[in-house]
Amino acid sequence: MFDWMVWTTPVAIFFSCIALMLVGMTVWELQSPTPLRRGWLPMETTRGDRLFIGLLIAAYINLIFIGLAGRFQEWFGLEAEPSIWISFVLSMGVLALVMRKG
Question: pTM score > 0.85 for this model?
């Protein structure tokens, strides 16, 4: 069923993190409903809104990194493509920033 997907360790960890965040946010929301808040995003958001926006940004960061990995290898004269862990750490950092300040 999942033969089309390349399940490398970073990909599995990325999707596991998303699943754990969704479960955690659901439990948190049931325990303590969130009020609307305005951060640097151009709208009032709840925790769930910020999680959704952050996950979208994280996904785009990972897709862009994967698409440009070969170019990074050329531009920086690397022997191999850069590790996908770089985009994972960057995307989780951006997600944390959106959740905290967005």
Answer: no
